[in-house]
Design goal:
Blueprint: E1 2-6, H1 11-22, E2 26-31, E3 44-47, H2 53-59, E4 67-70, H3 76-86, E5 93-96, E6 110-111, H4 123-142, E7 146-151, E8 153-155, H5 171-178, E9 183-186, E10 192-193, E11 195-197, H6 198-208, E12 218-221, E13 227-228, H7 229-240, E14 246-249, H8 251-256, H9 262-270, E15 275-276, H10 279-284, H11 294-307, H12 316-341
Parallel strand pairs: 1-2, 1-4, 2-3, 4-5, 5-7, 6-15, 7-12, 8-11, 9-14
Antiparallel strand pairs: 10-13
Length: about 350
């Protein structure tokens, strides 16, 4: 199989690239080459600024592919560019959308590809919906060979997946657990969530590639494991070897008291209970099963991060914000208790 990945070095695409390279497929990555050290042997990097359409056309002018995948398209104009460049040059065009595009609030906690797409809380999700609509229009009207893939919360060895963290990623929360400090969990921590290891995601994705049955289809790829957020944070704390000191805070309060986009990432995504029905994926990719349980995967992630200090990005601004939120809530509780006792 001959495939071109636009991007190719992110959380999801890196695992797919590794898997395909290990199987001897002909893989090309089209990006600026800033993370070329992580590219497996045998994979060709085409250095190009993909926002420059003429440069993109020039980079692939004499090439055709079995599959083209865009991992870094977020708005319709980027897909319109891809359509102009790759129409007639690929047997399958795969677009990475997002499970956050599903209806919020959900009318049913169990999600499949027939769940309506609507997210008034998060512009990121609305843009993904618009991208899907453009591509499906081209499929219906012209037979453009599109497959839409909807991941949910996918993680790798480089970052611990969490619900509430700052702009520098999740390390500061891990650090708080290590130091015995309280950490914030949105809501009461009992809503259900699904974490998928990128190596499991890659197996399913590769099964959809060059798959005639996937053309014109939207397919979600997630694990079948459902966890509460309390269980997620407890798994992280156990892997660290420290007790979890959880402070539960409503998502609305967190969004109102910060400059972080918690309205989108929480109200529009992680604050909702989700259970994914992957029947369609398993029909298209017979034998697929996500194998890495979260407590096992996150333990490996933490071991990797501990061995690579460059991934331990401190975030003092977020740390101070957490202390402030927790202090305010504690003071409010004290005040109410005193008023009740007098």
């Amino acid at each position: 199989m001959k495939a071109l990945f636009i991007g190719g070095t992110g959380t999801i695409s890196t695992a797919i690239t590794r898997l395909l390279a290990s199987k001897g497929h002909e893989i090309y990555l089209l990006n600026r080459g800033s993370r070329s050290s992580e590219v497996p042997d045998g994979v060709t990097v085409l250095k190009c600024d993909v926002s420059d359409e003429q440069a993109l056309k020039e980079a692939v002018k004499d090439m055709e592919f079995d599959v083209v995948s865009d991992f870094i398209a977020f708005v319709p104009s980027q897909l319109e560019r891809d359509y102009r460049v790759f129409k007639g040059k690929t047997k399958q065009f795969m677009f990475i959308s997002s499970a956050s595009a599903y209806q919020k609030p959900l009318s049913n906690y169990q999600i499949n590809e027939g769940t309506p797409l609507s997210n008034p809380y998060w512009e990121y999700s609305r843009n993904k919906i618009a991208c899907e609509e453009f591509l499906m229009q081209k499929y219906r009207e012209e037979g453009f060979p599109v497959t839409i893939v909807r991941p949910s919360h996918t993680y790798d060895e480089r970052s611990v997946p969490l619900g509430v963290h700052g702009r520098n990623g999740s390390w500061q929360v891990v650090k708080r657990i290590m130091e015995g400090k309280p950490v914030i969990i949105h809501g009461d921590g009992t809503s259900l969530w699904t974490m998928t290891h990128n190596s499991d995601f890659a197996k399913a994705y590769v099964g959809l590639m060059d798959n005639v049955h996937a053309l014109g289809e939207s397919v979600q790829i997630t694990s079948d494991e459902s966890l509460t957020w309390n269980q997620i944070y407890e798994s992280i704390a156990r892997a660290i070897g420290k007790p979890l000191k959880a402070v539960h805070v409503s998502s609305e309060f967190l969004a109102a008291c910060s400059d972080y986009d918690f309205t989108g990432s929480l109200t529009g995504d992680k604050a909702n209970s989700v259970v994914f029905d992957n029947t369609k994926l398993k029909r298209l990719v017979p034998g697929f099963c996500a194998e890495i349980r979260f407590d096992q995967g996150v333990k490996e992630t933490l071991e990797y991060i501990m061995q690579h200090p460059v991934l331990q990005q401190k975030d003092p601004e977020f740390d101070q914000w957490c202390d402030t939120v927790i202090s305010v809530l504690e003071e409010a509780q004290k005040t109410i208790t005193l008023q009740k006792d007098t």
